[in-house]
Design brief:
Structural class: alpha+beta
Number of helices: 8
Strand content: 35-45%
Shape: globular
Order of helices and strands: HHHHEEEEEEHHEEEEEEEEEEHH
Strand order of the largest sheet: 7-8-9-10-11-12-13-1-2-3-4-5-6-14-15-16
Largest sheet: 16 strands, mixed
Helix content: 10-25%
Distance between the termini: 121 Å
């Protein structure tokens, strides 16, 4: 490795005055071929190129090799997290509805996950526990904090339903957005088609891009950051939805603002931003800030307990029944059948904060009023004509 040696006064030394001077190529070149300042600048540039080289692209890697590198790297990165806890502050700004703020605390182990929604005072108002493919949720009626609530509502659902939008694994892009699946699980899922994969240098850093399409026609472009142990730092998702008998493009963008190395080679996002567009019109913009993050610190097993208090009205979507919980949580009465609404049956995976309903503008109201006036006018004209014809017949 070349050594940096002070060059002041070297231009005044004879060529053979120092064996080190003769043997060091940098100093020899400095003396023989360039003025002192120019040679020093060239030497520093060469050394910097050795110390911090630009990342090189793996031109020889095929699409399959890049996909396998990203999958295995991301899988190893997530499997290194045995437990996690965090608090999340989510701010959503919709042009037509203003800003909305949600808060939640999050806990995760190898066997269970718990999300607790908090009010502005930090009190629990809704808890959702996921374990063994089943979700159980408990909330106070009317958003009342659980500690003071007199009436409760409970829900039991399978893993495919979304009972909370505050799952940190989804917000942090550890899961593919709109899917309860990691990158490795998603690419291995039946019906997923990998379209292309490539690598690029962005802001001096190597990135891997993978594009794929799901069975229900969501097209994803996912960017993986090898420097942060192959975590996802950007996702673009596009699909087509039916709206008033026409196809409309819905597009979502998610991006990690920054990562923090919580433990050696274990990273976690500090913040994530997202935007949702419909027909290139911004519908909602979100920022998710993570705080009090703790990884692999161990979480007591009772942190994931969730019991329905006596009298809780429980909707069991798996068995299709509704009942009141007894002291042991079991039905205290004869369960009634549960019929989900058409909205709940709709197979739409758009975020709940995106609505296709447009506000009733003045123009729309005038148009409807004009149509009503025309219909009423025609009806009155027809009635008048019939009345006149009857009068003529009587005459």
């Amino acid at each position: 490795t070349p050594k940096i040696i002070a060059t002041e006064g070297l231009d005044r030394l004879p060529l053979d005055s120092s064996s080190q001077y003769r043997s060091d190529p940098l100093l020899w070149g400095h003396r023989m071929f360039a003025p002192p300042k120019i040679a020093w600048a060239v030497s520093v540039a060469i050394l910097l190129n050795f110390v911090d080289p630009q990342p090189a692209l793996s031109q020889s890697k095929s699409r399959e090799q890049l996909v396998e590198e990203a999958r295995s790297g991301n899988r190893a990165s997530l499997s290194a997290i045995h437990s996690a806890k965090a608090k999340v502050l989510l701010k959503a700004n919709a042009p037509r509805r203003g800003e909305t703020v949600w808060r939640a605390s999050y806990a995760r182990s190898l066997v269970a996950t718990k999300v607790t929604h908090l009010d502005a005072q930090g009190r629990d108002i809704l808890s959702v526990v996921y374990r063994d493919g089943i979700q159980r949720a408990l909330g106070g009626i009317g958003g009342t904090p659980l500690a003071t609530a007199k009436e409760f509502a409970g829900t039991i659902a399978n893993e495919n339903e979304i009972l909370t939008d505050m799952d940190v694994w989804s917000l942090a892009l550890f899961y593919i957005p709109h899917e309860r699946a990691t990158l490795d699980e998603m690419l291995g899922r039946e019906g997923t088609t990998i379209l292309r994969a490539h690598e690029a240098i962005e802001s001096g850093l190597r990135k891997i891009w993978i594009e794929f399409e799901t069975a229900d026609h969501w097209r994803y472009k996912v960017r993986i950051d090898p420097r942060c142990n192959y975590l996802i730092d950007r996702v673009e998702a596009v699909t087509q939805v039916r709206e008033r008998d026409r196809s409309v493009e819905v597009r979502h963008q998610f991006e990690v603002v920054s990562f923090k190395e919580m433990l050696p080679t274990i990273y976690f996002p500090e913040a994530v931003t997202s935007k949702a567009f419909r027909k290139d019109r911004l519908e909602v913009e979100q920022t998710k800030d993570f705080s009090e993050v703790g990884l692999n610190e161990g979480i007591p097993a009772d942190s994931f307990s969730l019991r329905f208090p006596t009298g809780t009205q429980v909707t069991d979507r798996i068995r299709g029944i509704v009942y009141r919980a007894g002291p042991d949580g079991a039905p205290a009465n004869t369960p009634a059948p549960y019929s989900p609404s058409l909205r709940e049956n709709a197979e739409s995976r758009e975020p709940s904060d995106i609505s296709s309903d447009e506000p009733w503008s003045i123009g729309r109201i005038l148009m409807i009023a004009s149509a009503i006036a025309i219909v009423v006018g025609l009806s009155m004209a027809i009635r008048a004509r019939i009345k006149n014809s009857r009068l003529k017949m009587d005459d």
